[in-house]
Structures are given as structure tokens and as C-alpha cells.
Input
Amino acid sequence: MKLLIQFLAAILIALVPAAAQDLRMGSAEVDITPPPGMAMGGYFQIRLNTGTLDPLYAKAMVLQDGPVEVALVFCDLLNLPRGYVDDARRIIQSTTHIPPENVMVSATHSHTGPEMNHVFLDRLQGAPAQIAREYRTALPEKIAEAVKEAEAHLQPVEVWAGAGEERSLPFNRRYLMKDGTIGWNPGKLNPNIVRPAGPVDPQIPIVYFTTPTDSPVATFVNYAMHADTTGGTQYSADYPGALARALEVVKGPQMLTLFAIGAAGDINHLDVKTSDRQQGPKESARIAAILAADVIKTYPKLIKVEGPLHIRHEVIQLPIQQVTPEEVEKSRALVDRAVEKGPQGIPFLELVGAVKNLLLTDFHGQPIEAEVDVVSLGRDVAWVSLPGELFAELGMDIKNASPFRYTIVDELTNDSIHYVPDLKAFAEGNYEPTNSFCAPGGGEKLVAAATHLLIEAYMGSSR
Ligand SMILES: [Zn+2]
Output
């Protein structure tokens, strides 16, 4: 009899498919607010910090399904050059069970965080230079700490996914002008605007994690719009930080909200049809309140999703823009002048191009090694991680080509290669193509790589 029961139990175990409870998740946040007085990033000039509106965080979520373990980390930073990611991965390799290539580190693109661009950091002097050096060492350690803590909190979870939509917030900031040129942020109520030159992506992909007894653990939110709504000289996580605080009120302080910026290279929040200034903490709060309402309205519509958890990587070579030694010398002189005397009197695109030229020298003319990663759960959810600021058009191409029910584009991950415009925008010119490392066609190559990985992940997604 006992043998028969054991035999039947063995058959039952074999018949029951590997269930959702195999999936475990842990999340954690670590404060990465720099000390007061650090140079802040985002606007092509050195602006020193004068205080903190709200803290900056590295927020980690670790997913584990049997032997597969991955970490996704979202930092309230403008961007994350590759060196920071390499250092964080090295520490994570020695402090967790997660292989370094299974760690994705993203920036939310907050414009009220520390300067990350070495062209400006290298030119700091005195106390700000010292603060920047110390922050450079401390940041990878803090990112690794967030992952270690998240791994320590691994617990069985149920996963729910869906997507809200918000069309009132994002605007394509490139406009066809009456003279046939493409304007970039052409100004409020500009009478020469004909129409936007590109689309917006209004989708809000959401992944919600609960305990098996339905207690909120974490909400992941993705939205394609620049986190440049606060401005000023105080540290702030911009609207993603305010969104996290709004959802915490509804779901409780034990729930962590993690935010990844979608393909928002050409998307911001500025409505040129109004004269409202649209900058400051009140504007961030307005945007966050609308997004929070969208997320809250979407919770009841989420569907339950299950593993298996998969990860796929590919490193592709992107053609790089070439710069001559003479251009580099001219650029160096221009940037030195802008840092010493301020950017006044220097045409903005000239300064942007000069900073870009100096950053390009890091590559010695060689192609960009761009890492594309796909993390997927069953056939329902896929996170696509890519470096750089992708145009919305490219992000939507990836989503349209993806066989997954919900596809999340997580830009500015694992490296900073600045803007990634589509071929059309390269032909049109203006700010983003000027502030881009890759040659025309690089964006389409990233889309092709992401599509290929997504299809492979989908086909290989059965247990
Ligand atoms: Zn940007």
C-alpha cells in the first residue's frame, strides 16, 4: 500500500507542470543621493547642487526560477556609462549568486541627479572634483548593495501583468516647421509649428508582484517620456520618484515601485499648445498623479502570468560616427571655454557636438559594442534592455515585432551611448542626431537584434 501511494505521488508530481510558485522575487532600494554640492547632469553646463527635494535610489528586483537568476536595477540617474555597470557587475558577482551578465542596470534619465558625463567631471576642480571622485567609487557599491539586499529578500510570488495607457502627457518634441526644417523643442505657442514630426508611445506596461496571499510586494512601471520635469539645482528623482510615493500611499509602504524609462529619445512632457511653464516639483507631481491613477485603474485588469524565466543576450556592433583629430582639438577648446566662462554665446548644437566629439575619442574609431538583453516570463512578459536613448519609433517597432503579450522597452541600460535616432531623424538632423554616438542605421540594427532575441525567447519559452 505504502509503495502504491509513493508510486501515485511520484506520478502526480511528474504530471503537475512546474508551477508559478517556482518563481521567486525580491526587491530592495538603496539611497544613492550624492553629498551636497556635487555637479549635476543634464544641461551641458556645470551646475552645482544646492540641496535635496527627494532622494535618489537604486532600486533592484531579483527574479529567480530554479537555476535561473536575474537582477534588474533602476537608478535615478541621467545615464550610466559602461564603466559603472562593469564595476557594479564585478561586485555583484562576488556578493550574490547572480552571474554578471544576468544583471541589467538602467538609468531613469532623471535630470536632477549627479553629472555622469566624464567630459564635465574631468574638468571639475576643488571640492566638487573630490565629491565626484568619491561618488564614482561609491555608486557601483551601492548598486551592488541593492541587488544583494533584493536577493536576500527572495520569496515566492505571484506575478500579474498588463498595460495602461496615457495620451495626455507625452509629446514628440520634434516638429515640422513652416520652412520645412525640423524644430527641436521649438518653444511654446510657436506660430511656425506645422505638426509633430513623430509619434508618442502612450502605453504603460505594468508588472505587479504579490505574495501568494495577495500582499503587494512590488510594482514595475514603464513609460516612454523624458524624466526632465523638475529642473533646478536640487536632487530629485523627477516624476518616477513622485509616482512611487503616490502608489505607496495606495498599496502600503512595504510595496516598492520600480520605474524604467521606455524609448523616449524624442519624447518629453512639454505641450507647445499651452504657455504653461511646465517645470518644477509641482509639474512632476501633476504628471505622477496622472500616471499613478492610470496604474491604479489598471491593477484590476492585470492578468496572472507564469514562468519559466529566461534570459538571452547579444552584443552587436553598431557603426560609430567618425571624428577627425582637428575636430577633436576644436571641440576641446570649445568645451574648455564653455566650462571656464559658461556656455553663454556658444550656439547650443555646437556645444552638444563638441562634447559628443570628445566622448567619441573613447572608442578610437571602433564600432560600439552594444549589449541587448531580453528577460522573459513565459510567453506573456519580456523586458528588452538596450543602451542609449531610443526614439519612440524604434521602441514601438520592437513592441510591434515582439510575439510576447507585453513587451517592455528598457532604454539607457548597461551603457550610455546617448541618443539613438531612427534613419528619418538622422536625415532631418537637429539635437538628437547631433548628440548621438552611432552612425545612421544603428537604431534599426538594435531593433533587429531585439526582435531576433524576442522571437528566440518566445519559441524557447516552454518548460
Ligand atoms: Zn535625454
Observations:
- The mean pLDDT is 95.
- Residues 321-363 form one domain.
- The pocket of zinc ion is lined by residues 109, 226, 389 (CB under 6 Å).
- The chain has two domains: 20-317+367-459, 321-363.
